[in-house]
Amino acid sequence: MSAQHYENPEITFQPDHSGGTKKIWRIFWVLSVLTIVELALGYFLYAKGTDIGYATVMATKITIGVLTIAKAYYIVSVFMHLGDEIRNFIMTIIVPLALFVWFIIAFLADGNSWKNLRNTNAGSTPNQTEQVEKSPNETQH
Amino acid sequence: MGSTTIPAGTKWWSGGKSPFNVSYGKVMMWYFLMSDAFTFGAFLISYGTIRFSVNHWADPNHVFNSFPFAGHANLPLAFVSLMTFILIFSSVTMVLAVHEGHLMNRKGVEKYMILTIIGGLAFLGCQAWEWTHLLTGEHVALLTDGTLGVIPTTVTANPWGDNLTSAETLSALQKSSHQQLVAIASTLHHGAETAHHNLNALTNQELISQISASGLHATHSGPIAFGGYFFGITGFHGFHVFSGVIINIVMYIKTKLGHFDQRGHYEMIEKAGLYWHFVDLVWVFVFLCFYLV
Predict the structure, then answer these.
(1) CA-CA distance, B54 to B223, in Å (whole number)?
(2) Which of B11, B21, B32, B261 to mutate to test the interface with A (most CBs of A within 10 A)?
(3) CA-wise closest residue to B178 among B198, B204, B205
């Protein structure tokens, strides 16, 4: 079965649209499963609170972030059909967005640096926040 | 990545054809969406920077733990999961509409556009409920003057700080005015009118002992920036959903009138689809940054 197409002088090759809706539904299930895994990890963080330690919390949050990137990939590649475009076009979209990698690293590090400067009076006093959290006497805030 | 096979030696840049093998309109829609991605990205990174720069941030599992008609049940992540699935599903119906458009099947496009519009409206309804719930919430929190007040979550108020100890709560209650104490006590009665009148007649000490006996959960105020970022970013996203629904309604009407059949192609449905999927794409990141982590 081939879909009828009008003649557009701009378009040299029509992508093949004759495939059924099987792939669309497959991606729907992929996105649903990824979301359910994310929610399960979210509930894990909620149920465990801060008992599991900073490193485990951060590792879980980063895992959720990676799953989010995977969802974004499937939406852009399949639902938005970017994966069906020619390579040159894919690159004009993806390469500028790669700047986000640096933005995220730089700005989150900047935020973290501000927190340290505030907590230590710009480096002149030891960090007090962690001591407060560990203090058994809660009235000393 | 590309599944289209291109014969070797195609002269893409010699004129007369799109060097990207994509129509001008679709190329421009992609570049608009890329610029919009930078706008949303800048908002979210700004939010992340502020969140990383403070010692305490509102815990999403406490802020977003309610569900319509579920009263005071503690249901973290439940409502936002519903919103996420609504948007994923409306993305699927949109891509099915695009698929029917490729097959030049007008009835199919109409059916899936209607489903997509319903999904968008359902999402907006959910967001309206969530905003109302936060903006009209009643939470007892420590104010900057050292007294306790009943505050909602807005761009200028955030009750989602650490819990106060019972000693801190008591000392703050003693500094609070009669009016504040009555307001706090009536949140414990869930605003029954008769209870409110009776409370007004009580002395401050009676009110304080009643409030203390109820095991009140008072909190510190949280960072004010939370409300601004939450309402700003989900509002900007909600505005995109709203304009996406309007675009989809226009596309539905144009399909119904047979404009695309006359034109010989359903490319406008594809462009509207790109915008709609982008809205879903942004939600994936908003969901991550505000609700999951």
Answers:
(1) 8
(2) B21
(3) B204
A81 and A118 fall within a common domain: no
Q: What is the model's pLDDT at position B136?
A: 93
Q: Is the pLDDT reported for residue A129 higher than 70?
A: no
- Asked if pLDDT for residue B285 goes beyond 90, the answer is yes
Of A6-20, A48-62, B116-130, B197-211, least confident by mean pLDDT is A6-20
Q: How far apart are CA B256 and CA A47, in angstroms?
A: 50
The ipTM of this complex is 0.87
CB–CB contact A11 B292 (8 Å): no
- The domain containing residue A113 runs over which residues? 98-141
Q: Which of residues 247-276 of B touch A (CB under 8 A)?
A: 263-265, 270, 273-274
Comparing CA positions, the residue from A40, A41, A39 lying closest to residue A59 is A41
Q: Is the pLDDT of residue A96 over 60?
A: yes
Q: How many CB pairs under 8 A join A and B?
A: 187
Specify the pLDDT at position A134: 42
Instruction: Tell me the domains of chain B and their CATH numbers.
Output: 24-64+74-135+224-292 (1.20.120.80), 139-213 (no CATH)
Answer yes or no: do B21 and A108 touch at CB < 8 A: no
Residue of B22, B65, B80, B81 lying closest to B271 (CA atoms) = B22
Domain count, chain A: 2
Q: A48 pLDDT band (50/70/90 cuts)?
A: confident
Contact A11 B18 (CB under 8 A): yes
